[in-house]
Amino acid sequence: MLALVALLLLMGCASIGSPDGGPYDETPPVFVGSTPARGALNVKDGKVTLSFDEYIKLEKASEKIVVSPPQVQQPVIKTSGKKITVSIEDSLKENTTYTIDFNDAIVDNNEGNPLGDFAFAFSTGEVIDTLAVSGVVLDAQNLEPVQGILVGLHEELDDSAFTTLPFVRVSRTDAEGRFTIRGIASGSYRAFALKDMNQNFLFDQKSETLGWLDSLVVPSTEVRMEPDTVWKDSLTVDTVRILPVTHYLPEDLVLLSFTEEPTFRYLVKSERTALNKFTLIFSTPADTLPWIEPLNFPSDSAYIVEANPRNDTITYWMRDTTYYYQDTLSMCLTYVATDTLGLLSGRTDTLNLVPKKTRAKQLAEEEKRRKEEQKELEKRLKRGDSTMVKKQTPVLPMKVNGGSSMDLNAVVTVTFNEPLASWRDSALHLVRKVDTLWVDEPFVFRRQKAKLMTYELLAEWRPEEEYKFTADSAAFRGIYGLESKKTDTNIRFKSLDKYSSFVLTVERPSTSPLLAQLIDKSDKVIRQAAVNAEGRAEFYFVKPATYYVRLLVDDNGNGVWDTGLWDERRHAEAVYYYGKAIEMRENWDYAEDWNPLSVPIEKQKPDDLKKARKEKKEKKSKNQQREEQKRKKQKRK
User: Fold this and answer.
1) CATH number of the domain at 267-359, out of 2.40.160, 1.10.860, 3.30.70, 2.60.40?
2) The domain 498-610: what is its CATH number?
3) Does the structure show a pLDDT above 60 at 331?
4) C-alpha atoms less than 13 angstroms from C-alpha of 50 in its C-beta half-sphere
5) In the predicted model, what is the mean pLDDT of residues 18-41?
C-alpha cells in the first residue's frame, strides 16, 4: 500500500509534456556504391543500380532527371528502400559515354533533404568522356532564372540541326536556372535552351521556349590552385593548404530564352457579344483592317470600327437598330492570312453571327421585368402605399476620373460605354477657384489616341489648386440616341512636395532607342521614359516608394519589349537591370549614373526581385522553425 501511495505521489510531481527530441536530420543521402561502378568502361547492360546510406525517394523524377545522350524511349526509374534502379530502354550506342543527371531529385525518405547536383556516368567503350560545361538560363524579358528548361549541345554546327536533329548531350536547369552538361567529348558545339513540349529534343513547335548562343562552345579544363581548410573542430582552423583543383570550362554560359510571338495568322474567333456589336480576333497583328462585305445589311456607314493598336482585336458597333435587331448578321470577310506554304495571302470567309441574346429573348426579359414591376405596384396599392415610382429616363453613362487627390502627371479622362455621335463644346466648362471665386479656365477636350470611347481633358493644371469640370445636360450624345445628364466633377492636384524626381544618366549599350523603366518589387513597370541623345532619362512627379531600374533596348522603336525569331536568327530585345534599389522620399531629387555593361548580365537582377531567391529565402529548415517556435514560447512566458 505504501509503495502504491509513493508511486502516485511521484506521478503527481512529474510534468506531463512531449519532449523536444534531438535536432532534425538535415544531412542529404550519401551515395555508397553502384552496379556498374561509377565511371565504368565497356558497359553492355543498360540497367544501373545505385545504393545510398539511408532510405530515399525521388521528387519530380520526370521533370528533373535527364539521360545523355537523349533517349527516344523514356528510361524506367524505380526506387526501393535505399536503392534506385534506372533501366535504359533504348539500345546502348557503341563507344559512348552515358550520364544520368539526377539534379536534386534524390531526397531522404524522412526529412526530404536533397542530394543536390548528383550525376552518374559510365561508358560503353574503352574511354569515358569527362568534359563538362555549365552556365545559367535566364528569361530574356526580365532576367529571371528559368527552372526546368532543357539545355543541349549539337556537334553538327549548322543551324538546321536545332530543328532536325536531337541533341547529343543534354541537361536541365535547377531552381536558380543553373545547368551542367557532363560527359562531353573534345570538340566544338552549338548550345541551345529548349522547353521541349513534345520531348523529341528538337525545336519544332512555335510554342516552345528557346534560346541559343551565337558563339561556339569549346569544352576544356583548367587547373587552379585553391585554398583547402582543415578544421580541428567546428571553431578552430588546423591548417590551410593550397591544392590544385580542376575546373571544367566554360562555366559561365548565359542563354537568354523567350517564346516567339505567333507568326501564323488566322481568324481565331468571331463573336457577337451583343445585338449591337460584333468582334473579330486574329492570331497576330496586321498593318491593315479586314474588308467586310455585308450580305443582309447596308454597307454604307453601317458600323463604327474600334480596333486596338495591333489590329488583332477589332470591334464593329452597328449604327442602325433596324438591322442589328436581326438574329443573324451575314457578311463576307476578306483578310490577310497565312497559307499552307507559310506565306501571307488574301482569304475570304462567310460569317453568320448570332448574338448570345437574341432580340426575341431580350423582349421577353423586358416583358417579364415589366410584369414583375406591375405586380409590385399592385401589392403596394393594396397596402395603401400610393407613392408612384418615377420612371428613370435612360441616359448615356459616363465616368470622369477626377478627384480631390490627383497625381500631377495624371490625365483627366471621360469614358463612355458606347461610341459618341457628337458632343457640344459649349456645354463643357472648366473653372478654377481663385480665392472665393470660380474663374473660367481654358482647356482642350479631345478623344484619346487609339481609344474610341475615352476622351481627355487637357489644361494647365496647377498643384494644390481646385478645379471643377461641368458637363451640361445632353452635352454628349451616343450613337444610339442616349444623352448624358449634367455632371459636376471636382479636381484637385497634389502639392509638389509630395513627389520625388529622378534623373538617370546611361552609358549607351546600343545605338538603338532606349527606354528606362521604374519598376516595383513585383517587376511591374510603374513609369517609363525614353533615354535622350545625351543618355538621360528624366522622371518627374514620382510617388515616394522603393523602385528598381530596368533598361530596354527598343530595337524596332515600338515602345514595348519584343521577343526574338529563330527563322531570322534574331534574339529578343536586350534588357538590363540596375543592381540596387532606390528609396525615393517626398520632396527629394535623385540622380544615378549607370553603365549597363559594367556587370555581367546574369548578376544584374537584384536578389529582391528574383522569384527563385524569394521562394528559397521563405523556405526554412525544420530546425530553424523549431528554434523560432521556442523563442516565441519563451517571450510569451
Assistant:
1) 2.60.40
2) 2.60.40.10
3) yes
4) 27
5) 80
